[in-house]
Hints:
By secondary structure, this protein is mainly alpha-helical. The protein folds into two domains: 1-45, no CATH class; 58-119, no CATH class. Helix content is 37%, strand content 3%. A hairpin with a 2-residue loop joins strand 1 and strand 2. It is elongated. Residues 50-71 are annotated as: Disordered.
Amino acid sequence: MLLVSGCVGADAALSDGTCNQSDSTVSCCLKQHPAQYELCGATAPQPLIVGPPGLKSSEDEAQDESQEEREKRCLPHYVACIEKIGLKPGGSFGGSQCQDCYRYCMRFGFWPLRMNKKKCPGLAG
Length: 125
């Protein structure tokens, strides 16, 4: 009979079969103690921030930036968009493509390359 206490290593054979030869000590421990990272000598995973490089997450950005600051950043792109494509219909009822792009910018803090599978020409595009 084999007795196993705690997380003794990758080659540990567990009587309940949750860990195998390919598990590291940490992964084996986490299988036995889900979400108890400190107990297993690991750090908890950090949330993934998706967006353009160099920008904070939209939650952080929303706390640090006022609507006026965001409008100052988005409005020049909106004006450039109108100059380039005019009032072409967007994806929302009665709205233009540039309006959809502007709403996205005001919400997330950066001008998108595409919305509704259509280009968002701003200052750079």
